[in-house]
Amino acid sequence: MSINRKLAQKLSEWSALGLISPEQAKSIERHELETESKHGFIFAISLLAACCIVLGIVALIASNWAEIPAALKLSVFFVSFAGLSALLVFREKNTALISEVLRLALMGLVFGGIGLVAQIYHLHSSPWKGLAFWSGCTILLALSSTSIWGAGLWLTMSLFALVSYLDSLHLHVTMDTAIFTLCVGAIGILATLPWKRFPNLIHFRKVGFVYASLATVVFTILTGYRFDAIMDMKVYVSLLSMFFLWGLAVQLTPTLYSPQFRMTFFTFLFAAAMQVVLLPFFGENPETNILRKLLTTLLFTGGTLGLGLSAFYFGSKRIFELTCLFIFTRLLIFYAELFMSLSLTGFALISMGIIIFAGLWAWHKWKNVIFAKLEKKSHG
User: CB burial class (10 A; 0-12, 13-18, 19+) of residue 3?
Assistant: First the structure.
């Protein structure tokens, strides 16, 4: 178990500056470890007790749901909603964590209320209408959120509403892909623009950047779709327009992003665009299959590494770690595609296991060093 990374860094800095002695730093660290351990145990037991109570209430309600009058169901819903809203608005002693939990609970309660009203009054409509209505009802809660969870939940449900709406139109797969790509690109473009007058939108910016970036990886670098099957002019135009406008949005806000972010982000967009342009010409020809896989792997490695580094400079270390895992997994897949023949399966499996262990060891050993160098470069 380790203490908070920021506190550990502060203790190291204070000790180096002579503000506290190394012995005092160790005493503080021991105290924090003991406190953290106690609090963690109490929190775990409290969470277990709360889950038991909630599951018990759900089980009681579910077993008697048909016998509960509709008026009582609606009354419980509105009283619960009003009570949580009052706690959020009027209770001055709320910590940031409690307020955020209340916002998320209200967002979940709104979703449950929509389903409850639809069930009581036998309302039938397309799923996207309910999701869109939920998005409209909870937008203020999401905008007032103080963490990425509220923004992430709202954007996720809104994207589900968009997917459901496109599905209800029964469009061709190329048109679906083009529209969804443009919408995801719009989220990414908005996420890279400055919103200084609206500080709470920083969470939407972070979530939007993550969603748009990972969706671009799925669309292009990961080759989640067969390009020769869907890559017509609509998809070409939508993808390349998205890359161009997204890069333009970053380029036109030079004071908002560091040169390191812009360089690595443009690398990501360039690799994605090259895959869109080049890969459809290879098709499924067996003679060019190895070349296609090699090109895909190279573009994936370069583009995803650029995405990970730009995410790091954007302030999201988790995305950097995730992209490193993507790269390692893709290289393993490429290795398996080359050597996993019947005669070489045993050797390939043994060597792959060794490579995985070596990769885990290297990441564990050099992770903090890599982070420190990137931090130094981002502030240099």
Answer: middle
Listing DSSP states for 294-339 in one string gives HHHHHHHHHHHHHHHHHHHHHT-HHHHHHHHHHHHHHHHHHHHHHH
> Is there a contact between 213 and 313 (Cβ–Cβ < 8 Å)?
no
The phi and psi torsions of 371 (rounded to 5 degrees) equal: -60, -40
Co-location of 313 and 180 in the same domain: yes
Return the pLDDT at 284: 58
In angstroms, the CA 10 to CA 16 distance is 10
Identify the pLDDT of residue 287.
Answer: 57
Same domain, yes or no: 155 and 23: no
Distances, alpha carbon 17 to alpha carbons 8, 20, 22, 31, 130, in Å: 14, 8, 11, 21, 58
pLDDT of residue 225: 41
- For residues 210 and 149, give the distance between their C-alpha atoms in angstroms, rounded to a whole number: 13
Annotate 166-183 with three-state secondary structure: HHHHCCCHHHHHHHHHHH
pTM score, whole prediction: 0.69
Q: In angstroms, rounded to a whole number, what is the distance separating the alpha carbons of residues 41 and 34?
A: 11
Report yes or no on 180 lying in a domain. Answer: yes
CB 230 within 8 A of CB 279: no
What would the pLDDT profile of 275-290 be if each residue is shown by its tens digit?
A: 777 766 665 565 567 7
Residues 72 and 163 in one domain: yes
- 16-32 pLDDT, tens digit per residue, is 777 777 777 777 777 66
239 and 260 belong to one structural domain: yes
